[in-house]
Design a protein that fits this description.
Length: 1294
């Protein structure tokens, strides 16, 4: 075959098919930047290591290999110039592991391993130096290699010899070798710690090894030990009684009600709700009435995101997910949040007057690069793992004084969320001597080495190579497999886990010693039993690397067989690497070199190096007076709306799946126009019942340059004003995570940090009985570099990001900023600042390049507890129609966003709030605390009565009403003083997102979305239901069995089972390994459902690995074929299951003309609430649903239905198309984003001739209940229209 080239007798290279869009090729060409070279082509290239000579490979075997690799047999290596980007020599990439596994499962045993690279080619002659430079501009220096000679690719399969451990000779050279190792290895040890190590080892007459030093550095890094938060303090010469951590703990001492675990595990545990939790036990899905407690955690991953934005943010999200899963003895991550703070974006096509020229070191990414790549990285991990991301924030800030440059060159990358845990699993078990130590998850790789230490340094302080070495790389599908193992464990009545620790900063060198220490014993580890994809690594590198997606567990020897079965069933790698021993020593034995690279007492490792001490002198901040415009113009308002902190965040949201799990009641989007202005995220506790869990974020970091105390208090208070419309009953129900970022020791860093912690830890939170049971600090938030012999630095403001969490009793009372179009309603502004209008740190000040002024502060200290209860009472009584808080951009932004969410105009009367017109700017643009609610005018007296009880009636003002005119008008003393057309405002609000999407996504779809989102005449989502939605489902006594089928990487099985269970099916958890091993056979079932997710991480195409593992297995092929041919049973494929079944159409009668599902036209993952039009078809699922228009979530990266004209014609003629994407007028559409993927003819689902096999990309299983929607019509009650879809399947089975 032309596309095969022999690299060596047992290594071949195969060119992949050319299937890249012109947009993607142009992106690559711009990145490569080869002068005068335009014809750069790009293809994937596959390298296969065979276990026999190529001459013995048959034509059939070659054809099968080509088919599985989606390669083309007519691609020829004819380029005059080319370069390859491949995985780093000596490594095994995650892609390779999964692809090789697929080939093995498909019976291609002659392929020992397959690896993938990128092949860049040109018909022009390019010198090797330029080719190398071009490759360098694209390659990830930590994980990839640039190859200019095809024969060099043979090294991909080379086996490197292990490197030995290195001894650090202190016995003869004293301190010097320790000091040199500190620099060379980037250990970030201070002088006191080096001396502590020297003294400790001198007493044992033993030289330390590099593995021991690296382990010590990670375990005792600022990142892990939080030395500053545990430091002692002196202020103005006076010793302070409390450390920073003491002041945080004070909130728990003051009010611990509802906190089960604080400060002692990977995450905090809060009391939740009792509910009917739904999950499988002994293979069958069912409800389990139990206490469903909350796990909460918020992390940051700032340094890695500055260096490598995609991987830094991706592994930041992945690490936080592991923290939740490894809490207690196993928990379930449920919903996530993500946030970013960066310096000014400097968009090429949207240069703003408040932005200056960029000035940064080369080693870090620019703010724009971060905001293009990092959100995609975070979203990708959450998507593939299967955790909905339903909350976030985004701030840009940069400012200069004469001698200081403030900003976020080192960004904040916030990753957090909530999960659930059983009450009896909240604490680790006792780990006796003899317990086995297990590493669960992926193999060791030489990535993320020294991440804990690197995160403890200012950006620019370390060595460039060490910076890149400290960034981890991601494999979310592996983490999903690990979580499936944990799920089977905690779902079992006899959980086999004694102790679990995630592998994060410091790798195994941190996780295993901490587990062993907490056991109260010692440990023995066999180094070579640690799974390892890079055999050339030294013991230090194996022990200390931060390869992701790993956990360390202690398992009782009697439970090891049961645990092993779970791992094998889930195809999750694991290894017993050691055991708990008597004593207090940790020993790591290396069988290859027959030595102990680590032999250290835990007392030395976790001993007490000298404690950090900090001090400062009290002094006030010098604050200049603001000189802001006093006239409000349309241009000025539009600048505020275009500031990224205020502007639409839609471009950060649609890339993330927000509906997976089927337990999300509120995401960022609001109303039928899906406008991203929600104040909080909200989950259902379970599919049954009305309880839930809410979370919200508060941050106002620029204020700390004026007053860190005020900034901290406002951040806490903003969480309150954001979260209370979710239905919080009382203020003390809310628990906080506090994430602290700053630069102590620089400028006023010590003072700012201490005063901010004191303000909330000793004052605000205790007064409000709010607890901070969890948090994180990252206190090296400066970027330093030299340029032309000039030392430069950018320092972030002290930054407190507060996340709030609370159990909610009734999610149905929650409200949003969407105004209701009721005729006689009023807008009430509740001024929690009680008349204060301080403008310091405001967005208006920022767009005018102004620093200083007076900072907003918390004025409602006494009123807030009663205010929260008043809002809850009003929500319970259905008196609040809409709610939105005042924050960035001021009251005018609050009102405008409420207008956007409802496409209604506003008539605002300022008579009750302004004494004279001169205070108009301050009133509309100040960012003090406050909220706006919409109420029926007839309820005003009742509303004011409740507000009076919280002493806020005198600070509550009726601002006016809604209007059908598409404009926002402000009047004062019977005169219209301001008027702004909604069209202009919404276009400016979406401008930043449009510009970033134009650079990040397909520019054609970016422009289409901008036009769609700023079209004020768009009718929005408008369901039209032509059948009765049942109020209750009648369950028959017989319950047919349906196989809820999943493959590794699938993540949507639980909600699918819940939907079928709701209508009377017995749902059985069936993994593909169950069919392969004959534990189950499809003949046992009346229904088969292939669920959504990322089978095999979408390696070899979405659904390709899953489908081919069936097609190439004779037994499975017959089993599935027989099932599809049986017209008395049904099959359904959704999302990944749809992609899989479409590739099995050769086995399905009457499915010849089904489309393939390819990469979305936008070139990105699409997660949206869309509407589909139901067509008349033979599908048993859509019986009697024809001509309806139903809203439904979509979440996929490869959902574009593609077929030939003749196949499309046959689909139409045979009525095999079941649903099509619909526009706001109810017509099928190919227009983005109503059609989220560019499917031909708007195809969203198809069926076969008999109607017994249906496939679809949208997710009805995530929307069978009204509560699962971010927006739904008021007339829907308990169920949504999709319940009929599932009930039709039940009625089909007699």
């Amino acid at each position: 075959m032309n596309s095969i080239i022999e690299v060596s007798p047992k290594i071949i290279a195969i060119l992949g098919a050319e299937n890249n869009s012109e947009f993607k090729l142009n992106q690559l060409r711009q990145s490569i930047q080869l002068k005068n070279i335009q014809d750069i082509g790009f293809q994937e290239i596959y390298f296969c290591l065979l276990n026999k000579d190529i001459s013995r490979v048959t034509k059939k075997e070659s054809q099968e290999l080509f088919g599985l690799l989606n390669a083309s047999d007519n691609q020829i290596f004819t380029a005059l110039s080319f370069f390859l980007i491949t995985p780093r020599i000596g490594t095994i990439s995650p892609w390779s592991s999964k692809a090789t596994e697929i080939l093995k499962n498909c019976g291609l045993s002659f392929v020992e391993r397959v690896e993938k690279g990128d092949y860049f080619s040109s018909s022009e002659k390019i010198n090797s130096q330029d080719l190398k430079l071009a490759g360098t501009s694209l390659a990830d220096r930590m994980t990839q290699e640039i190859i200019l000679n095809l024969n060099d690719a043979a090294n991909l399969f080379s086996h490197l010899q292990p490197s030995p451990v290195r001894d650090i000779d202190i016995s003869s050279q004293q301190l010097l070798p320790l000091q040199q190792a500190n620099l060379e290895l980037g250990l970030a040890l201070n002088d006191e710690e080096i001396l502590y190590l020297f003294d400790s080892y001198s007493m044992t007459n033993k030289d330390p090894t590099d593995a021991e030093l690296m382990m010590f550095a990670q375990a005792n890094s600022e990142h892990c030990r939080h030395k500053i938060f545990n430091a002692s303090w002196t202020i103005d010469g006076n010793t302070q009684p409390n450390s920073l951590f003491d002041m945080i703990r004070n909130t728990h001492i003051n009010s611990s009600e509802g906190v089960i675990s604080a400060y002692e595990d990977n995450a905090a545990i809060l009391s939740g709700n009792k509910a009917e939790r739904f999950y499988p036990r002994d293979g069958k899905y069912s409800s389990h009435k139990e206490d469903v407690d909350l796990v909460i955690k918020v992390e940051t991953h700032n340094h890695p995101t500055a260096i490598s934005p995609f991987s830094g943010a991706s592994t930041g999200s992945g690490g936080e997910i592991r923290d939740e899963g490894a809490t207690g003895i196993g928990a379930k991550p449920k919903a996530g949040l993500t946030g970013f703070s960066v310096s000014n974006l400097r968009l090429p096509s949207l240069k703003e007057r408040w932005e200056t020229d960029e000035d940064k070191p080369d080693r870090i990414a620019s703010p724009l690069e971060i905001m293009i790549d990092a959100p995609i990285g975070a979203a990708s991990f959450n998507n593939e793992f299967g955790r909905p991301n339903i909350l976030g924030y985004f701030r840009t800030y940069e400012a200069k004084t004469n001698d200081t440059h403030f900003g976020y060159h080192k960004p904040i990358m916030l990753a957090g969320g909530l999960g659930n845990i059983k009450k009896e699993h909240a604490f680790k078990k006792k780990v006796p001597v003899g317990s086995k130590l297990v590493v669960l998850g992926g193999p060791a790789m030489l990535i993320g080495l020294g991440g804990g230490s690197a995160s403890s340094l200012s950006s620019g302080e370390g060595d460039t190579d060490l910076d890149f070495a400290s960034v981890q790389r991601e494999n979310p599908e592996m983490e999903r497999r690990c979580q499936e193992v944990l799920d089977r464990c905690w779902q079992d009545e006899n959980n086999p886990i004694l102790f679990i620790h995630d592998v994060g900063a410091g790798g195994l060198s941190n996780a295993i010693p901490e587990l062993v220490k907490d056991s109260g014993h010692g440990g023995l580890i066999n180094l070579r039993d640690i799974p390892n994809s890079e055999p050339g690594m030294s013991p230090m590198e194996i022990w200390c690397n931060e390869s992701q997606e790993r956990y360390v567990l202690a398992i009782d020897e009697d439970d090891l067989e049961r645990f092993s079965f779970i791992c094998l069933r889930e195809r999750c790698p694991y290894s017993v690497v050691g055991e708990i021993t008597n004593g207090n020593n940790l020993e790591v034995y290396d069988s290859h070199f027959d030595n102990y690279p680590i032999s250290i007492s835990l007392e030395t490792l976790f001993g007490k190096p000298p404690k950090t001490h900090l001090s400062f002198q009290s002094s006030g901040k010098n604050s200049s007076t603001l000189n802001l415009p006093q006239e409000i113009t349309e241009d000025l308002l539009c600048e505020v709306l275009r500031h990224p902190t205020v502007a639409s965040k839609g471009f950060l949201i649609t890339i993330g799946d927000r509906s997976v799990t089927g337990l999300i009641a509120r995401d960022q989007f609001v109303g039928p126009w899906q406008v991203p202005v929600a104040d909080y995220g909200l989950c259902k506790t379970s599919f049954a019942g009305k309880s839930g869990e809410a979370m919200a974020i508060g941050e106002r970091t620029p204020l700390s340059l004026i007053s860190s105390k005020s900034a901290a208090k406002i951040s806490v208070a903003e969480v309150i004003t954001n979260i209370i419309p979710s239905g919080i009953a009382k203020l003390s129900d809310i628990k906080l995570s506090a994430n602290w970022m700053g630069s102590p020791g620089k400028l006023d860093g010590n003072k700012d940090l201490f005063e901010a912690v004191e303000a909330i830890g000793m004052d605000l939170c205790p007064k409000w009985n709010i607890t901070i049971p969890v948090g994180k600090d990252s206190l090296s938030m400066s970027t330093e570099w030299s340029e032309s012999k000039n030392n430069k630095s950018v320092i972030s403001p002290l930054s407190l990001i507060v996340s709030g969490f609370a159990a909610v009793k009734d999610i149905r009372i929650a409200t949003t900023p969407q105004l209701k179009a009721d005729k006689d309603t009023s807008l009430i502004f509740i001024d929690l600042a009680k008349g204060k209008k301080r403008m310091g740190g405001s967005i208006l000040a920022q767009v005018n390049k102004q620093m200083g002024g007076e900072s907003p502060d918390v004025e409602c200290l006494e009123e807030m507890p009663n205010f929260v209860e008043a809002v809850h009472k009003l929500l319970t009584d259905k008196k609040i129609l809409a709610y939105h808080d005042r924050s960035d951009g001021g009251l005018i932004t609050t009102l405008i966003e409420m207008s956007f969410a409802s496409r209604l105009g506003l008539e605002i009367n300022l008579d009750s709030v302004l004494e004279d017109n001169n205070k108009l700017v301050d009133f509309l643009f100040n960012e003090e605390l406050g909220v706006v609610i919409q109420v029926n005018t007839k309820d005003l007296d009742y509303v004011y009565e409740l507000l009076d009880k919280s002493s806020l009636k005198d600070h509550s003002h009726n601002l006016g009403c809604i209007s059908t005119e598409k404009e926002i008008n402000f009047s004062y003393r019977d005169k219209k003083i301001l008027s702004f057309p909604l069209k202009v405002l919404i276009e400016n609000w979406h401008k930043v997102g449009f510009e970033i999407q134009s650079l990040r996504d397909n520019p054609i779809t970016a422009e289409a979305e901008f036009r769609h989102d700023s079209d004020i005449n768009n009718l929005g989502l408008r369901p039209k239901i032509n059948f009765s939605i049942p109020k209750k489902i009648q369950i028959n006594s017989t319950r047919p069995r349906v196989a809820i089928l999943r493959e590794q990487g699938v993540n949507g099985q639980n909600e699918m089972a819940a939907a079928f269970n709701e209508v009377g099916f017995d749902c059985i958890d069936v993994h593909m390994t169950d069919l392969i091993s004959a534990r189950h056979n499809l003949a046992e079932f009346e229904g088969l459902v292939a669920c959504g997710g990322f089978s095999y991480g979408d390696v070899l195409g979405a659904g390709g690995g899953w489908a081919n593992s069936i097609l190439f297995n004779e037994g499975l092929r017959k089993q599935f074929g027989d099932f599809f041919h049986n017209e008395n049973v049904f099959s359904l494929g959704v999302c990944n299951g749809c992609q899989t079944l479409s590739l099995l159409k050769s086995l399905i009668p009457g499915a010849t003309n089904w489309p393939d599902f390819k990469r979305n036209k936008s070139e990105k993952f699409e997660a949206r609430l869309v509407q589909v039009s139901v067509k008349e078809s033979p599908s048993i699922f859509f019986k009697d649903m024809g001509d309806s228009i139903i809203t439904v979530p979509v979440a996929h990266g490869e959902g574009r239905a593609d077929a030939s004209d003749s196949d499309i014609s046959e689909l139409n003629n045979n009525h095999h198309t079941t649903i099509t994407y619909s526009d706001d007028k109810g017509s099928f559409t190919e227009n983005y984003p109503a059609n989220p993927n560019g499917s031909l003819n708007g195809i969203a689902g198809v069926t076969n001739t008999s109607g017994t096999v249906t496939i679809m990309m949208p997710h009805p299983e995530r929307a069978f209940l009204k509560d699962q929607y971010s927006w739904s019509p008021d007339e829907w009650t308990h169920y949504s229209p999709w319940i009929k879809f599932f009930n039709n399947a039940r009625e089909f089975i007699n």
